[in-house]
Every structure is written in C-alpha cells, then in structure tokens.
Amino acid sequence: MGRREFVVVKDPLSRAYYYFSEREWSILELLDGERSLTEIVSECAKRFAPDFVSPQALLQFVADARSKGLLRGGGAPPVGAPQFAWLRNPLAIRMPGINPDALLGRVATTTQWSAAYLTSPVFWVVWLVAIAGAAMTVLVHFESFSQHVGQAASQTSLSWWLLIASVVSVTKIVHELAHAMCCKLFGGECRELGVMFLVGVPCLYCDVSDAWMIPQRWKRVLISAAGMLAELTIATFAVVAWRFLDAGVARDVCVSIIVVCSVSTLLFNGNPLLRYDGYFILSDLVGIPNLASQARQLIRNWVRRFVWALPRVGSGESERPGVPVWHRSFFVGYGLLSAAYRMLIMFTLGSIAYGWLSSYGLNQLATFLVLGLVVAVAYRMVKPLLHRPEQADANLKDAGKRQVMLVAVGAVSLVLILLVPLPRHITVPSMVQATNAKPVYVATQGQVVDAVAYQSDVSEGDVLANLVNPDMVLQLAKQTTRRNEMRAQIDGLRKQQVSRPELASQIPATADLLASVTQRCQVLQESVDELVIRSPSSGRFYPPSNLLKADQDEVRQTWAGTPLQPSNRSAFLTAGTLVGHVGHPTDREAILLVDQADITLMQIGQSVSLLLPNRSRGSVLGKVTEVSPTPIETIPREFYASELIALPSHLALQRPAAAYYQVRVELGRSAATLAVRSTSQARIRVRSASLFRRIAEALAN
Asked: What is the dihedral of CA 304, 309, 315, 321, to 10 degrees?
C-alpha cells in the first residue's frame, strides 16, 4: 500500500479479509496469553518510540480483533459469517451465489495469453486512443446524439423496454466477468458469483476480494477497474455503430448502450463514496485498506468521546495502533462525504417511492413508508452512540451537560427541518397548441369535397373546406319551389278577390303558410352556406387529434386520422366534428391537466418547465396565465395515446375517470419549433411548503 506494507489475513470459512499494519501485527504477536496489558503497553512503548499506544487504544484494538474471531480464549464468539448478512444493506442486497472458480480457472488457462496484453504499454495506448476518439465523436455530434438519446428514451412499448433490459443485463454480466477473469489471470480466486439487487434493479455480482492477497498494487487497481474498462470498450464499439446506423431500433439500442456503459458506469461504479469499483481503486491508490470502515469508526469514536466526555488522545498517539495520525483529516472528510452521499441516495429513493405511491392515491402509505425510512436511518446513526463506555463513569456530570446540549441542538434542528418552507414542484401532463388557437367545427353535416392543406397560412374568412349534402340541397330546392308556388297563389287570390270577394278570406292563411315556408328556406339556405367552412381568424390551420374509425360511440364515423386529410375526401362529417384549429404560426402555449388534489396549489404567474424527451430540462419555460375554475368534461385523445393519463375504459374518451382542471401556460420563444398537439410532462413550481405541512396534507388526503 504505497510505502507501507500490510499483512492480509484471509478467513476461508467466512470469506472475510482482515488487514493489519506491521505495528498491528506486532501487537497481535504480543498477545500470547502470558503478557499482561501493562507489559504489552510497555513493550509497545519500546518498539514504537517515540509514538505511544495508550491502554484505551490497545483495549479497543483487542476488542475489535476478538469480535472478528481472530483471538482465542475469553469466550470469543464463534467464527463464521452472520446469518442473513446479505440482507444488511438495503441498497445492494446480495443473494447467495455459486462458486465459479473452477470454470474460470479452465477459461483462464486457455486465455493466459491475454495477460500479456494487460501488461503491454502498446495495448493501453491503443485502448486510450480508441476511447478518446469515441468521446470526441460524441462531443462533435453532441446535438444529434442528445436528440437520439431523447428519441430512445421516449419509447414506451413493452417490447422495447424488454430489449433494453436484456442488453443492459448482458453489459453488466460482461462487467462482472471482466473483474473475475482479470483476478484469475493475476493469480487470485473468485469464490462467489450471483445476483444482486442494486437499488432494486437485479444485476450480476462477483466476489473478487481475493485480489487483496495479490502483493502488487497496480494489479489490484486493474482488477477493480476491469469492469468499467470493459464497459467503456463496449461503449466505444457502440459509438462506431451509432455513426453508421440509420434511424431505427438498432440505433436506439446503440445510444442506450453508450449512455449506460459510459456515463452511468462512471457515475455509479466509479464513484468512490460507495463500496463499488471506485472505492477499492481509491483505497489502493491512497494506501488505506478498509477506508470506509476506518473513517466511520474514527468519526464514531470522536462523537462518542464528545458525548461521554472521554479524555482526548494525546499528541502523537494514534486512534488505532498502526494508523498514522495524518490520516485522520482524510478519514473525516471521506466519512462525512460518504455519509452525505448515502443520505442523498436514500432521500432520492424515498422521493421516487413517494411519488410513485402518490400517483396511485396511496399518499398515507407513502408518508408512513418515508417516515419509517427516516426513523430507521436515524436509529442506525444514533445506536452506536447510546452504549456507555466504562471510561465515562468518571465524567458523568460533564457528559450529562453535553448530552443535554446535543438533544437541544437536535430538537432545534428537527424543528427547523420540519417547519422551514422548502421548494416544491408537481409534475402534470401537458399538450402544446398554437397561441390563441380557435377551434373550427362542422356546422352542417356533409361530405368533404375539397379542403386546404393543414399547416397552411390563412386569413379570416378564407375557405378551409367545402362540403356537400345532396339531401339538404334537394330539400332547399323543394322548399324554394313551394315558396314560389305559394307566392304565385297569393298573387292570383289578390287579383281574383275583385270579382270574387269570398276568396279574400283565404289570403291571410296562405300568407302565414308562405312566411313559414320562407323561414324554412332561410334556415336551409344558412345550413347550405355553412357547408363552406371558413377560417374564424387569421393564422395557421392546424389539424386536430388523430382518430381511429368508430372511435366515438353512437356515431357513424366514416373517416380516420384527421377529417380534412386527402384520404378522407367524400367522407361524411357530422355536425360538431372538430376539423382543426387556427392559431398563431409560431407562438405556442401549453394546456396542462392538473389533478383535483393539486389544483389548490395553482396560481397565476407560476413558473412551468416542459420535460421534453429531446430537449434538456429548463430549455422550454413558461408561466401560468389561466386556471380553470371547473373540471373539464373531456380529455384530448393525445393524453391517452401518449399514456400520460391512464385509460381505464373506452368510455373514458368521453368522460375522464378522475377530475382534472385545465391550466393554460404561455410559453416563450424557445417553444416556437414545438409541434402543435405534442404531449409531454410539465413541471410546475408551486408555493413552498415545509415537511410538516406536506406530511399533514398527505395524511389528510
């Protein structure tokens, strides 16, 4: 380990590895069952002068070694792995696996030549050049790459996600096998291979702890990094394939592999704050084995010393025999960062679980689960500090004062955490439409004769479509003929009443009948005129939702897609059919559907961000301009087609299963290129709320 040497003790039964510095190993050799504590302390003072090992530090070291089953006598606990130890870490649950060492040994024997490449500088130069070339390719074409990633992420079919899950599983299997093979080629052993649930996601794991038995540090680092190196190699080949593939499933798979095998691998496996590849690489590079456990133990000792008013360790004395004093600052920094990162992960997982359960109306269950998680984490942090050490008996008064102070600080911190308002956002479905879009409906049913093309610029009064209704035209002709006949009849009666006065009594009744027929003609003429559909305003003519045939109950529908598209010529459109919208050519607005439970949080002027799959978050922003006071009666089909709103039954096309309120949002210039009636999620920044208020709201619902 750098300039220091350690002794590694391997327990083949429990598969545990213990690391001891030369000083610690010397102390273990002094524990022969004959020397007393005083004699051992005196001998240490002679061997390690000018450093001093206190009796307290020696007792702690002996107790630690005894708890691990490394010492005999004094009723030492039995040696062996604790039962159900694989359930201790909820973030990475390891299931019992198999022993693949024999199989790996046969493979390593046939591929022994590959070890020469791992030690060849030429191989690593070529590999680094290939990785750099792939990275530069992605950076040069980053705009198209980000668009392709968005297109791949927007896939919603079950077959697509099953394919991606299979591909990712294969890459992770290669990752773990790279660790195992590299360890085997360098003389180590892989004693276990199995399945691990990493943050709930099943993946493969292999135990290459035997790498710590390899003396050369560079080999241990290479074994720890082998998985990431293998994934970066896969990502390099995926970049080459991505550049030569056309749009399709294969290209989407390639961009997914690039993201998973590069960014995801480096962020998670390369992160040294968790006990994964990056952690073991860092531990080897800085020359500190058991880095995480030593950091936690040091911080725990410092806190316990403060809580129980224990005496400070003297100058030049180590917290643990064999651990240099200069390591303390590094331990503390790493321990605090690691703890903060773990808390961040737990908070993120809790937020995801809360949002998922809340989407199904299980707010109370989500609240209790999150509170239970907080209590469990807090108890796990406080539990080691509750045990009173024997040295605390002489300072109980000072310890009591400190404990009261800590309780007070903790209570104030808890109150602040619960009561301080925190930013809050809600996510709702949204649909883009043209600003000031006015709907265009069919007023009189008829067949489509011709129409302007969608996306055409029109002026107010321009003809958008011509319909024909032969029955109505025939009725108008009949009524017009009858009207003309009655007019002629009245003229004849008026002429004849001079010679025949008795005919004068027929004129009023005939006139009333003529007025009725004339009114009927006017109504029919207006209906015939309405067969010519005109633009209600100036702007661009946009299509409505795409519909399937017979998509409406109780209505005979003879068209599909959009009503005025060329394939629907001669199709029969019923009165009230939406044929399109006329709105601004470039300005856009968004229509949000807010659930009844969140509508009270909405206010005019709130900031909104559209979460578009092919654009970065925050690139399309807007502000709320209108909040509907009543729920909407129908939901546009686009929300169902994009699965932003669940469709429990066909009747939901007419009436939504839940109460949604419409919120109108004015978008900025960045939305000018968005397709009209495209859907996505929208993130609304609502008024801040404290944790206490959020918990109360969840329980009330």
From this structure: -40
Is this prediction's pTM over 0.70?
A: no
- Which ranges of 360-424 does DSSP label H, i.e. alpha helix? 363-386, 396-419
What is the separation of C-alpha 662 from the centre of its chain, rounded to a whole number of angstroms?
26
| d(C-alpha 198, C-alpha 447), whole Å | 60
- Residue 228 token pair: 């990431």
Are the C-beta atoms of 681 and 431 separated by less than 8 Å? no
Q: Which two tokens stand for residue 25?
A: 């190993």
- If DSSP codes are grouped into helix, strand and coil, which group holds residue 613? coil
Indicate the SS3 state at residue 132. helix
Cα atoms found within 13 Å of the Cα of residue 437, Cβ hemisphere only? 29
* Average pLDDT value for residue range 420-446: 88
Collapsing DSSP to helix, strand or coil, 439 comes out as strand
The topology (CATH level 3) of 425-435+586-689 is Elongation Factor Tu (Ef-tu); domain 3 (2.40.30)
Q: What is the pLDDT of residue 76?
A: 47
Ranges of CATH 2.40.30.170 domains, the chain: 425-435+586-689
CA 126 distance to own-chain centroid: 36
551 contacts 423 by C-beta, under 8 angstroms: no
* Burial group, residue 12, by CB count within 10 angstroms (0-12, 13-18, 19+): exposed
Q: Which amino acid is at 303?
A: V
The tokens of 2 are what? 């750098």
Please provide the DSSP assignment of 157-179 as one string: -HHHHHHHHHHHHHHHHHHHHHH
Residues of each domain in the chain carrying CATH 1.10.10: 1-81
Tell how strand 438-441 and strand 578-583 pair up.
antiparallel
Determine the distance from the C-alpha atom of residue 353 to the mean position of all C-alpha atoms in its chain, rounded to a whole number. Answer: 11
Task: Tell the residue number behind the tokens 């045939």, with chain if given.
Answer: 549
Beta bridge partners of 440: 580
Q: What is the pLDDT of residues 73-116, one digit of tens each?
A: 655 455 444 555 555 565 567 777 788 878 877 777 766 666 66
SS3 319: coil
Q: Tell me the C-alpha distance between 452 and 465, whole Å.
A: 6
Q: Do the strands 660-667 and 621-631 form a parallel or antiparallel pair, or are they unpaired? A: antiparallel
- What letter represents residue 174's amino acid? V
Q: Token pair of 656, please?
A: 């939504």
In this model, does residue 286 exceed pLDDT 70?
yes
What is the maximum span of the chain, computed from C-alpha positions, in angstroms?
A: 155
β-bridge mates for residue 623, sequence order: 607, 666
Amino acid found at 499: S
Q: Which helix (H) or strand (E) holds 534?
A: strand 532-534
Q: Between 75 and 132, where is the model more confident?
A: 132
* CA distances to 302, 404, 694 from 603, in Å: 50, 45, 18
- Residue entry with tokens 């099943």: 202
What's the rounded Cα separation, in Å, for the pair 652 and 660? 13
Span 299-323, average pLDDT: 61
Least confident of 171-180, 380-389, 465-474: 380-389
User: For the CA atoms of the chain, what is the radius of gyration?
Assistant: 39
Q: Which of 259, 292, 294 is nearest to 138 (CA)?
A: 259
Alpha carbon of residue 30 to chain centroid? 55
pLDDT at 255 over 80: yes
441 alpha carbon, distance to own chain's centre: 40
Tokens encoding 372: 């239970």
User: Which of 41-55, 352-366, 536-550, 679-693 shows the lowest per-residue confidence on average (mean pLDDT)?
Assistant: 352-366
1-81: what fold?
Arc Repressor Mutant, subunit A (1.10.10)
